[in-house]
Amino acid sequence: MQSLPIDSVKNDVIDVLRQNSTLILQAPPGSGKTTRIPRFLMDSFEGKTLILEPRRLAARLSAERVAFELQQSCGEDVGFHIRHERMLSSQTRAVFMTEGLFLRTLLTNPTLSDINFVVLDEFHERHIHSDVAFALTRALQKNSRPDLKLILMSATLDTGKLLDSIPDAALIKTDVFTHPVTIEFEPATDHRPLEVRVALAVDALLSDARCPGNILVFLPGLADIRRAAQMVSQSKHIRTFQLLELRADSPHSEQKKIFEESPLRKVILATNVAETSVTLPGITGVIDSGLAKVAGHAHWNGLPTLEIKPISQASAIQRSGRAGRTAAGIARRLYTRADYQSRYSQEKPEIQRSDLTQVLLEVTVALNMITLNEKLKFADLEWIDPPLPESMAAAQSLLLQLGATDHNDMPTPLAAQMTRWPVHPRLARILEEGALTGRIREICLIVSILNEGFLIRRSSMTAATVSDCDLVFQASLYSSATNKNDFLNKSEAQLIDESQLKKIERTDAALRQIANIRSPKVTLPSPIDDCSPFAREILTGFSDRIVVFRKPKNKNFTPEIVFARGGLGQLSPASTVQDSKFGIALQAEQVRRQGATHFTTEVTAVSGLSPELIKDFFAPQLIKESMVVWDEHAEKVKCIERTLVDSLVIEEKPTAAAPETLEQELFNQLRARWPRPFHDITSITYFQTRLEILRNKFPDAPEIDLLGGDFELFLTHLCEGRKSFSEITSITLSQHIEEFLPYELRELINRELPHRLKLNSGRMVEVHYIEGQPPWLSSRMQDFFGTMKTPHVLSGTIPVTVHLLAPNGQAVQVTTQLESFWQNTYPDVKRELSRRYPRHYWPDDPSNAEPITRRPKPNQTPASTSRSK
User: Fold this and answer.
1) Which of 106, 377, 415, 498 lies in the 20 to 30 Å Cα band around 235?
2) pLDDT at residue 370 is higher than 70
3) pTM
């Protein structure tokens, strides 16, 4: 067996573990700690060891490497347990597993009764599950398992911080020999596509004498690997190397090629799964993109996400160290030195940047099962970096909503049931409801799609598709894609992501196994009038995501979304649910549309929902309220009864209300919108002018100001017995004013300052009262024949100015001395007007003229026109 640097401290490790419960081991990359520490423990101690790795590939490869060194098959003394796969037997003493599975192991074995050692490898990465494993192992050590040993190890540990947090821990640091690695940076920021820069860097290292061996390229994800592979395959050196890919879901046959001897050099395009743990053979060159997919969570629903972000300095050191594990090498960083120096020295602990709901549920249930000297809660555990209070509060609130905890944050009977599902508590709650409703098979598929992501987005399709639930639509595609008897149309078949299909298939199989369902066949129910057939089950996990859709006026726009708990958003064109009134928003993202200055919440996945189901589901929480509202379109007050969930109106129907309540709301709307509903309020100034003139002679007359002190009283009068603007305008504003006035004042003002005066001809002529002007009236001159004296108002004290009009409507005389006009001016006016308007009647003596009752007919003389006798 090949000797490794870590072998030199074997005895130190064994001696420390005999005396201490916790060991911190810091050893450089390539020293062999991942594969040799389990061997040390197996050789020197009884019992079983759990080695927790941050990645599935590292767990599998490490187990296979140790088994190979033992000349055994994986699954004998050494095995692994990762998501969807395990190689274990009753004799297995060292189990490599991913960190996330430790907590689930603890749920089935609360005291880790058959485990003697827990090893946290690559602890510097500070994943949430490694921190949880650390905290729970420490809790066991201090209570029911003082004999349990804990080992924390990595090449780049912050040992000072760890010793401060774990004062009883022992520290072993190894300064073993490592091969020198030359670090090179980009001289300046290069804005070319990543795959172009990778291809150029590969060509440069293939020609560099300092890099005689294999080349390892670190890329963020699968899409980047595929683009880079396409560019690298065009290299002029293509015949001199073998191009390989290494990622978490690489087929086992592809992974083995990396470790097999080959006459050609190897260029390995990898994600950060190659950053730590097992040494890849013959690597003397590393190309570091400086990027990685970092685990996070969707703020919207708490489900896990992977975002591409710059790596920390510690990760960069780990990556470059891969070039010097077996020989001197070179590491080419595709970013500048200044960029490197500006990065965090260590990645921020995931427990302070992730959704805590799932680990909080699992830890709460685990703590309830573990025998402790005192009752501990999540926040009481021994954390190296404690979780943020706001993240804790959000997780506690959601678990309470899901029914997993009570108001004291203690687990309910439902909590233990939910923890058997390896998914977010929202999805676990949906699965539990599916088991109750007898539709667990269909719900397993629905949850798998929601957990893993869609097969395709509708926005990628050429044909418009409308459904009552995005999940059911995707489930039907999955069913067709996996059923040989079903057929997809060409556009759908071409757009299905095969890798997504496999992920969903694996998760679905795992959930079916827990539910004890053997058959993969699924039968999806028919749509139910814009409501998802699985809406009840989905509601149990997303009861805080109820929305109502507002149809846009423009058919080219997608509906606006109103959230029950406040806020607005937009339905994504990618959603197939475009015609429902209510829905459950399952996925959303912040987008900024072209030309916009702010981000909008765009809901990308929806489940249709009926008002009947909402009322049934939320029956204890429904709020019913009667209220008077203003119908903007009809300009009418109405009383309605509303049924609400939170702030969302589920149902609205008319109901009765007291007349005074309706009048009050009409008054409020009238005052806010004045002068609506009137288009012209000159009637008010007309009245105010008349009243001012009247009070000059009758100072004891009431002082009324319709637009001042009496405004609200006047509006109250307008609203009496009414509930709409149309009822107010059923009579004129002048009539409203007349009705508002006291009887005595109305009689007085109409007598003293009448609206109209009757001429001797019998014609009624309107009198104009305008502020700053004397009263006046106007009409055709013929209407004044026989009226020889100037009309007066206000008990004959104020003469009315008379406007005498020619046949064309123009004033030929304005006077307050009508008698003088007839005597002195009329003859001249008659002479001029009779010449211009010969068909009109121009008597010589207007005092005795007969009034004209109609206009003369053609060929008729004015004298022959019919006159009143």
Assistant:
1) 498
2) yes
3) 0.74
Residue 726 has pLDDT above 50, yes or no: yes
| Closest residue by Cα to residue 607 from 636, 582, 626 | 582
Q: Give strand pairing partners of 778.
A: 803
Give the separation between CA 228 and CA 201, rounded to whole angstroms. 11
In whole angstroms, what is the distance from residue 156 CA to residue 790 CA? Answer: 112
Nearest to 117 by CA among 16, 32, 27: 16
Q: Are 13 and 37 in contact (CB under 8 A)?
A: yes
Tell me what the mean pLDDT of segment 659-667 comes to. Answer: 94
Contacts of 784 (CB under 8 A, 6+ apart): 759, 760, 761, 802, 804, 818, 846
- Nearby residues of 502 by Cβ (< 8 Å), 6 or more positions away: 249
The string of DSSP letters for 483-546 reads: -TT----HHHHHH--HHHHHHHHHHHHHHHHHTT-------PPPPBTTB-TTHHHHHHH-TT-E
Q: How far is CA 738 from CA 170, 756, 777, in A?
A: 99, 15, 21
Query: What is the distance between the alpha carbons of residues 285 and 267, in angstroms, rounded to a whole number?
Result: 9
The encoded tokens of residue 271 equal 């994600």
> Residue 857: its pLDDT value, please?
52
Q: What is the pLDDT of residue 175?
A: 75
Q: What tens digit of pLDDT does each residue of 371-400 get? A: 666 778 898 899 999 999 999 999 999 999
Above 50 in pLDDT, residue 862? no
Strand partners, 169: none
Element (H, E) at 81: strand 78-82
Q: Which of 131, 137, 160 is nearest to 150 (CA)?
A: 137
Report in angstroms the alpha-carbon separations of 666 from 623, 632, 719, 851: 26, 12, 6, 50
- The yes-or-no verdict on residue 3 having pLDDT over 90 is no
146 prior amide bond cis, ω within 30: no
**Cα angle value 813/815/821 (rounded, 5°):** 75
Query: For residue 643, what are the β-bridge partners?
Result: 624, 651
Distance CA(745)–CA(751), nearest Å, equals: 10
How many residues in the chain?
869
Query: CA-to-CA distance for 611 and 531, rounded, in angstroms?
Result: 9
Residues in a beta bridge with 608: 583
DSSP state of 553: S
With residue 589 as reference, give the H or E element that holds it.
Answer: strand 582-591
C-alpha separations of 804 from 675, 786, 821 in Å: 35, 14, 10
- Are 5 and 176 in contact by the 8 Å Cβ rule? The answer is yes
User: Can you tell me the distance from the alpha carbon of 137 to that of 114, in angstroms, rounded to the nearest whole number?
Assistant: 14
- DSSP sequence for 382-423: --SSPPPHHHHHHHHHHHHHHTSB-TTSPBPHHHHHHTTSSS
Spatial contact of 601 and 570, defined as CB atoms under 8 Å apart = yes
The CA distances from residue 457 to 92, 223, 460, 473, 573, in Å, are 44, 17, 6, 10, 10
Strand runs (DSSP E) across 213-314, as ranges?
Answer: 214-218, 241-246, 265-270, 283-288, 291-297, 304-310
High-pLDDT (> 90) share of the chain, %: 63
CA-nearest of 477, 465, 448 to 575 is 465
- The whole-number pLDDT of residue 207 equals 94
For tokens 């710059």, name the residue.
310
Q: How far apart are CA 839 and CA 698, in angstroms?
A: 48
Residues 344, 292: Cα–Cα separation, whole Å: 14
Element (H, E) at 197: helix 194-206
318 and 155 Cβ atoms separated by less than 8 Å: yes
Average confidence (pLDDT) over 460-468: 61
Strands (E) across 734-838 are located at 756-758, 764-766, 776-780, 792-793, 798-799, 801-805, 811-815
Which element (helix H / strand E) includes 68? helix 56-69
